[in-house]
Amino acid sequence: MIDRLMDTGEKTWAVLRSCFGQILILHIAYVALGFIVFSPLAGFIGRLLLQASGNSVMADMDILFFLLTPFGIATLVFFGSVLVTIIAFEQASIITICAGNIQGYNIAPIQVLFATVRRSLTLFTFAIHLITRLLVIIVPFLALAGAIAWFTITDHDINYYLSVKPPAFTAAAVIIGCIVLVLLVVLAHKLIGWSLSLPLMLFNGIPPSKSFSQSRQLLTGHRFIVLASFTIWLLITGALSFMVLGGIRFLGSNLISFFQDSLSAMVVLLGSLAVILTIAHLLITTITAGGIGGLVAVLQRQFNIEPSTDVFEILEAREQQRVNMPSITTALVGSAVISIGIGIWLLQGIQTNDDVEIIAHRGAAGKAPENTMAAIRQAISDGADWVEIDVQETSDGEIIVIHDSDFMKLAGVNLK
What we know:
By secondary structure, this protein is mainly alpha-helical.
């Protein structure tokens, strides 16, 4: 088994090295697609939410309560579904690149994108089947976790549970943690079983509805080796991400103290670190996505999933096709104009202010008890421009200065 793991890893690494430039171009294209899709959607939903609330701004708790409503849950499911669909399209493109490389083809990224567009209806159908299967698995676990939280940690204000951490909170956290762990195990088992469904659909013409069951049948008795292969690759990329991104952040946190007396130098430093961090993150995510696609391509070869004749013809067609650059440029410019227009519309009514004011949160709560006269006096002494306090309305209509809806965190008194 170890020899097979090493052989699979070596082949995956060889494919990734050979196709890295092509995969990087594809990854950038799909990251841009995700940005173009998600940014306007988030802006539209945010505007609708504000209009529905009747307020100009919404607090974090308002947003949380919205996400717990049926419409909020549907919004989360929708965003998750869009993300899964984009990932499915990207993996289809990467697997095609890697499978072509294994077969001896050097496929241009633009041709793979064209081939993916031609298969968009099939890929959308595949994504819908995948999302439906994921929801069938995830929803019961989340419902069970939500029910446990509802019956165990809703008697008092949530800040009491977060700050005091009573036995009920600890028990609920442990139980919900076990539920999430079981969910992750079940998801891993299912996803491993489905890992060959995409190449089966791409290269063998298996319908999306049957590709999942066909993949499970092919992997019967081999799931452990596939699980080990994916686990090792994810651990390697996770360690790489931790070392590189963590190293950049550590370097920045230590360098910034040397530039505190020069705002212009600090801006240059932070801007440079942001650029380096962005490039490093892009490269690491490319390695992760490309490695997964390459591993699937290697596995499909090991399990004798050979591309059919029409796929070879599509791969060879790259030599005859001519990329219509004016059309692509027009499409990109048009997309940019539309995105800029949406951005301007979303930014209408938002006023920017370059004056900086210091607001003491619940008074100087780091030096004195929050929402007390001592905290307010300390904030004034520290030179704060404003003091922010929290208020609640009592049952007889009086306004009192307190953050929580009960006195459990403040005094251990179970009084709303």
